[in-house]
Structures are given as C-alpha cells and as structure tokens.
Prior knowledge:
By secondary structure, the protein is an alpha/beta fold. 36% of the residues lie in helices and 23% in strands. The chain contains 9 helices and 10 strands. It has helices at residues 42-49, 71-75, 93-103, 108-121, 137-149, 167-182, 194-200, 218-223, 228-236; strands at residues 2-9, 19-26, 31-35, 57-62, 65-66, 78-81, 155-159, 186-190, 203-208, 211-217.
Amino acid sequence: MLTISNLTKKYANSTVNAVDGISLELKSGEIFGFLGPNGAGKSTTIKCIVGILSVTDGDISICGESMRTSPLLAKKHIGYVPDQHTVYDKLTGIEYINFMADMYDVSVSEREARLPYLADKFNMTDALNRPIKTYSHGMKQKISVICALMHDPDLWILDEPLTGLDPQASFELKSMMREHADKGKTVFFSSHVLEVVEKVCDRVAIIDHGKIIAVVDVKELSSEGNTLESYFLDLTGEKSTSSEV
Length: 245
C-alpha cells in the first residue's frame, strides 16, 4: 500500500537531514501509528508522503505509483487530514465537499452514497449549507475528515486528527479508522497521544533525529507486559511522565 524507500529530506541551509534515509512498508488492512518527539521528522515525513514537500533522495510509492515520477497518480490514492486544516472559508460546507470530490473525480452517485453517512457520523448534516467561516475549530476538522474520505482512499493519512474534536466525534473517527482498515485499506495515523495510538493501531513506527529507531507490533508489545508509553520513553530518552511528546 505504502512503500518508503531510503527517504531523505534536507532543507536548504541546514547542516543535517530532517529525515535521514528511512524505509517503511505499510500493509493493506492495518492502522499504522507514527510517533516521535517534537522535531524528530514526523511532519516532514508526512509532507513528503503526500507530496507537499519534494524529497532529497529516495522514493515513496503508493499503490505502486511513485510520488517522484507519477505524483498525480500517487495522490489519487491518498486521503489526507493535516494537523492544521486549511479550508476555503467563503464556501459552504457542501460547496467545499463538492470541490474536493471534483478534484478526485468522485461521481455524483458515489457522493450521494457516501456523504449522508459521513455527515451523520459527525453530526454535520445541518451545517453543510452554512459558510465554513461560521464553523468552530472542531467543525472545520470534521469537514476536513469528510473531504478526505469522499473518494474512499486506499491510504488514509491523519496527522493529529483528534485535535479540537468533541468526545463523540473522536469516538466515531477512531471507529471509522478501524472500519477503513477492515475493508483492506490502510490508515497512517500520527498522534502525540500515546494511549490512543496504543488502542487503535496494529503496528507503530518511532522516528527520532530523522531516523526510524523501531517498528513494533502493538499486540506483541502488550503481550510482553510493556506499554507503548514506556517503550517510547525508553527508546527516545524522554523523561516526561506525560503521554504527550
């Protein structure tokens, strides 16, 4: 589903690589967590995967399409929820959803089948005809999630998606992540909340100083009597007792 091969990213005027030769392979049908301390290279990696940043070296393949040589084809397989949502405030919710659906060539019949379900899940049905500029932070997050799912992506990438969501919406989002993976698709989930990552993810990669330092099966970790939090802190040397890094 997603193959990252020797990915390296170095910013101009920097003496070190923000991402330093990492390789990962994500399977169909799994929720894959992505963790790291602040400044470890998480956001840079994600922005390279979705094509916001160009790579210095290496390659990213999504469903067999290279982000370097076939970026438009690769991006067709991605649904992306960024950590800071950027939406067109002057559009109504439904106008923005239709705009994003047009970008991914979603047919009218597909929209009619998916939108009622998604809008109802996030209690957004009555808000769709309102301008997005009237939405709260959480509502803007919900509309971003809905748009990311309108084309039923093979790879659903979520970067801190729970920020600003109310408890019910958070529960629905986590349930939908599992449903998406159970359909044979893949969820790539980055979060600072280790308890949530431990509960919802099948495998987890930890990045530190631009390098992948571990890839672990969450169930195997639990069977060994270890928690993801303690494992993470031991590996990264983080001394905080908080679950946020």
